[in-house]
Input
Amino acid sequence: MTFQNILARLRQTICEQTTAPEMATLQKASLMLRKSGILERRLQTGETAPDFMIPSRGSDDFPQLYDLLQQGPVILNFFRGSWCEFCLTELQAFTDLAETFKERGATCLALSPQHPDTYSQELTNAFYPNGILVHDENNRIAKAFGLTYPVSPEYQHMFTRKGLNLAKLHRSERWELPLAATYLIKPDHTVVFSYVETDFRKRFDPELLLEQL
Output
């Protein structure tokens, strides 16, 4: 089954499980984000990616993005968290291609504001061995790329009803999330490709990056 077919099935499942008021909240949030101009303000293709420290998990080989870029292109995938089924689907697709990316000289990193200690053991076992997950504390990296937005009170209320406390998951008082986004950065620090979407249900197929590489 293709990545887009998997997403289509997931969208159908989520739609069936979501009430009409909740769906209205989701659609309103996506529309307001698009109207906010965030897609125009975010880091664009052709611009220079900002340098940032990559939180270490026992290795100091590549403490900065620019250090990592000396070894080849870098793929950055910003996602909301493990509680988001669309994020997990996309993360799995990136993880499945991690070795292929590596063979083509690229490194893939997935960044989320969710604190590593709040991931399930199953998810940790699935993704951490691939070296793909990065904790973006307080969304500082996503902010540098112009991708963050505050979660509206209406959206917060919906999350809370579902038992999701982002402040607790992020170990931060800030109710902020990054847009779903994928960036491919060349060794000269230039963004050669970017995909950014305000609708969290729309995701990028990482296989499309193979042509870029």
The CA atoms of residues 113 and 139 lie 5 Å apart.
